[in-house]
Design brief:
The chain is α+β, with helices and mostly antiparallel strands. The chain is about 30% helix and about 20% strand. It has 6 helices and 5 strands. It has helices spanning about 15-20, 40-45, 55-65, 95-100, 120-135, 150-155, and strands at about 25-30, 70-80, 85-95, 100-110, 140. Strands 1-2-3-4-5 form a 5-stranded mixed beta sheet. Strand 2 and strand 3 form a beta hairpin. The chain is globular.
Length: about 180
């Protein structure tokens, strides 16, 4: 058992998901030292991550840890290489509707390009759904591109509604339409 600081308790990790992983891979809560294991590099398959120092990483990690009743970021590690190969997050929102219910929002599902085809994305989704159920969420939702709909349907999701986004203007963008 590792003595590294984890984002949340290991009890939120599904033993069934762990058993379904290829040999030498582990699903677990994000750890304080995953900065060195390439966690941010894995996220680059999704979008621009930016340059973070270890200090900035620790600041964000510690914030999430202080709010670990809401933020659950998991990682799959290739234990032989001691590096992160897949990741995802579920954020638990507290609602007034559904009798003060909880909704899980899945975000930032990423699998290293060299690791695709091993069902790691599926395992991340299964692990996050498990966390949502264990936390008492009445539903777990996510946003995805049209090309990813078939994947998420295989993971048990159904298409519902439409996603909308408004990006906050930055100093480098032209006039904002507020």
């Amino acid at each position: 058992m590792s003595t590294e600081i984890t984002l949340f308790e290991e009890s939120f990790i599904s033993s069934q998901v762990q058993a379904a992983l290829p040999e030498g891979y582990t699903v677990r809560p994000l750890r304080e030292n995953d900065y060195e294991r390439g966690f941010l590099k894995v996220l680059e398959v999704l979008t621009e991550v930016g340059t973070q120092t270890k200090e900035q990483w620790l600041e964000r990690f510690n914030y999430l840890k202080q709010h670990n009743h809401e933020y659950f970021t998991i990682a799959i590690s290739n234990d032989r290489e001691n590096r992160i190969v897949a990741a995802g997050t579920i954020f638990v929102e507290r609602k007034f509707v559904h009798n003060n219910g909880l909704v899980g929002h899945i975000e930032d599902i990423a699998v290293d390009a060299n690791q695709q085809g091993k069902k790691l994305g599926l395992r991340i989704i299964e692990a996050l759904k498990y966390i949502g159920a264990k936390k008492g969420c009445y539903k777990v939702i996510l946003d995805c591109s049209a090309k990813n709909i078939p994947f998420y349907e295989k993971c048990g999701f159904t298409q519902k509604e439409y996603e909308m986004a408004w990006y906050v203007p930055t100093a480098t963008t032209t006039k904002a339409h507020l």
